[in-house]
Amino acid sequence: MRLDEHDSKIVLEQAGIPQEQGVLLTPDDMLKRPPMGPPWILKALVRSGGRSEAGGVVRAASEEALKPELKRLFSLKINGEAVMRARLEPLAPVVREMYLSCSLSRERGKVLLTTSRTGYLDVDSACSCDLLIQELPSPLAPDEHHLRTAFFHLGLPRELSDPFMELAAKLVCAVRDRHLLLAEINPLALTTDGRLAVLDAKVEVDDFAPGAGLASMETALPGESEDERRARVAGLSYVRLDGFVGTLANGAGMAMASMDLLTAAGLPPANFLDVGGDADPARIRTAFDILFHDDQIKAVLVNLYGGILSCEKTAFAMIEALGGEPPSKPLVVRMAGNGGAAGREILSRLDVPNLHLAAETDAALGLLHALTPGAKLERCTLNQQPPISISWSDAPKPGKPRKLPVDKTSPILVQGITGRQGRLHTRLMLEYGTNVVAGVTPFKGGECVEGAPVYNSVEQALREHPVEASVIFVPAPKAKDAILEAIDNRIPWVICITEGVPQLEMIEIMDRLRDAPTRLIGPNSPGLLAPRAAKIGILPTDPFTPGPVAIVSRSGTLTYEAANRLSTAGLGQSVCIGVGGDPFMGTTLAEALDLLADHEPTKAVLMLGEIGGTAEEDAARRIKQGRFTKPVIGFIAGRSAPPGKRFGHAGAILDEQGPGVAAKLETMRQAGVISGATLSELPELVKSVLSTSL
After folding, report:
1. Contact, 610 vs 554, CB < 8 A?
2. Residue 609 forms beta bridges with which residues?
3. Per-residue pLDDT averaged across 81-85, rounded?
4. CA-CA distance, 70 to 674, in Å (whole number)?
5. Active site residue 425
6. Mean pLDDT over residues 480-484, rounded?
7. Three-state secondary structure readout of 526-583
């Protein structure tokens, strides 16, 4: 979560970084006398960017000038966010403005210390000679030479050496100790009295970090609407948009694909809403309450593909949430996959007005068009920005395994086997033919789960069993240790199912992986599956059939939906690799293509991507370089998403200053990747490339 300036400065002050005197103002404070004298600088508090350009930062030389400016500020909306708070500070006497930040870099997989000789608005146009970016070691520690190098780069007076290095060290420690994704000071000012002053600050907190506790906070967070607060507390991922069709789906990828589907059909979505894999009555009730009470929404689409989520159980939850009453707005429910037919049958028995059922998305769209007369059918228009050049290291990782561990003989270890999810999926893997030989849970050694012996440690398990791959089902706070235990015991493959691993911990894991003979899939991965051979993870088996098409994907639910569409069209799959949707992945889409280059059963690849990051561009470069020669069909979920919003898991976010979805698609097109705009187009595209390549 990105904090506004006031809350960011509180975080930095708690980390020992002094802040300028300032007061928080609300509309109720407009008539109060400021505690410090003029001149002042008055700043709107919002979490989005572009505040200065929108008139959200102004100077006031007197109380007479301050009051009308306050009134104007509280009437503003900046990037759709209403201004409800402001910060008032004395106007600092500034000689020079600079930039200083510590951040987690998705592209580099490192923590960066960044300094610029120019600050504030000028930092965006700073030339490379003014900018210094240093990669910090992992585990994160502020080495003195990094701080000293930053100091000399800025060219500050010698007497400020100790104050600057102390401030920069505390900034790095704040990122480490508080699991921040970003701690930025812009501008860091040199004042006329020769001191360093923090004039503005921006902090972004990792929602999954230990102690973040954002999900359980009942009170609204700064800048958070009441609907956003209710959704967060209920465990829903919710973003309000500008359309008139409400949406609810299971999985971030499916929710984004639903948005794109509606946009392409001329039915603009009013929101993104991911109910996740646990659609209990309370969550459904909260979701319906948000959607049905939004005056902007004319109709609601529930789009579910049952994988681990059972549509049958969800149908009962929906009936309980509705209380047996008809929905207050037209409600179109599309259910397919696990329990889809049973779920539709259960809902049909309700026999109430305003409830409409569909098995496929095309039928659901037809119903929505009939229920919202006047909707205009037109294709979505993407932001046509040119592609950018991105640098990355794409050398193959030395010593990593290449043979996928998905046959009936591959011995599999389950870490976290005695937990609820570990037990359930151990049973399901065994039923599918996977060779689960053992499990590990500390202090549970000697037990047995589904016939598999349990050990206290990975080392003990390896004494008794050969292991080709370990699958991890431990809670997020313990996931890092479980992954490192598998790496240190040199297990060739590690598949981490756990969602919510803090990003700073993933950087440490990736550093450990660089020289290890282990290949990590995930975290937040549904796993690996070879149809009718073996699966490692949580993938449902019904959608998959044997055939020549490999699926590599950042989204679990999209994988199941796409596999079902291919299988229905007679296009089976050779293997499925779910790389996970987090910003830092153990195996990227590009590396997954490397694994499939000499995978004989694979004749073509379906690559399911999402907005945010450069994973798809990295894969496209592999292809363009001639390092992967099999045909690739692409799909990007979230094409219709506005920039600067986070959609579900941490990987799905469009940078406000980034190149946009159009650039991602263009980079893929230049590499020869054929992309479908909607999921329904994919089977025909796959058939087409197979017919020309075989």
Report:
1. yes
2. 636
3. 88
4. 52
5. no
6. 96
7. CEEEECCCEEEECCCCCCCCEEEEEEEECCHHHHHHHHHHHHHCCCCEEEEEECCCCC
Residue 580: how many other CB atoms lie within 10 Å: 30
Q: What are the two backbone dihedrals, phi and then psi, of residue 373, each rounded to the nearest 5 degrees? A: -60, 145
pLDDT tens digits along 384-412: 333 333 333 444 455 788 899 999 999 99
Say which amino acid occupies 668.
Answer: M
- For the stretch 549-563, what's the b/e string if a residue is b when 16 or more beta carbons lie within 10 angstroms of its beta carbon? bbbbbbbbbbbbbbb
CA distances from 276 to 118, 210, 480, 620, 656 (A): 44, 21, 23, 30, 26
Residue 220: pLDDT band (50, 70, 90) is low
The pLDDT of residue 397 is 53
Are the C-beta atoms of residues 95 and 190 closer than 8 Å to each other? Answer: yes
- Are 651 and 554 in contact, with CB atoms under 8 Å apart? yes
| CA dist 408 → 113, 340, 427, 429, 456 (Å) | 47, 29, 15, 11, 26
Least confident of 26-30, 423-427, 568-572: 26-30
CA 225, 231, 234 angle in degrees (round to 5)?
140
Average pLDDT across the chain, whole number: 89
* Spatial separation of the C-alpha atoms in residues 532 and 352, rounded to whole Å: 42
Place of tokens 């779920």: 343
Q: What is the DSSP letter of 682?
A: H
Q: What whole-number distance in Å separates Cα of residue 163 and Cα of residue 159?
A: 8
**Token representation of residue 675:** 């992309």
Torsion angle, CA of 423/465/594/104, rounded to 10 degrees? 60
Q: Do the beta carbons of residue 621 and residue 671 sit within 8 Å?
A: yes
Closest CA to 307 of 661, 563, 626: 563
pLDDT at 288: 96
What confidence score (pLDDT) does residue 195 get?
95
**Which residues, 6+ apart, have CB-to-CB distance to 367 below 8 Å?**
332, 356, 358
What's the pLDDT score for residue 1? 81
Secondary structure (3-state) at 660: helix
Tell me how many degrees the CA angle 613-615-616 measures, rounded to the nearest 5.
Answer: 110
SS3 645: coil
What pLDDT, on a 0 to 100 scale, did the predictor assign at position 156?
96
C-alpha to C-alpha distance for 646 and 295, rounded to whole angstroms: 23
pLDDT band at 693 (very low <50, low <70, confident <90, very high): confident
With the CA atoms of 214, 217, 221 and 226 taken in that order, what torsion angle do they form, in degrees rounded to the nearest 10? 120
Quote the pLDDT of residue 644.
Answer: 64
Per the CB < 8 A criterion, the answer to whether 277 and 309 are in contact is: yes
501 in Cβ contact with 520 (< 8 Å): no
Q: Which residues of 664-677 are buried (b: 16+ CB within 10 A; e: fewer)?
A: bbbbbeebebbbbb
Structure confidence by residue, pLDDT tens digits, 522-567: 999 999 999 999 999 999 999 999 999 999 999 999 999 999 999 9
Helices 340-348 & 311-322 angle (0-180, nearest 10) = 20
Which residue has better confidence, 429 or 211?
429
Answer for the pair 471, 413: CB distance below 8 angstroms, yes or no. Answer: yes
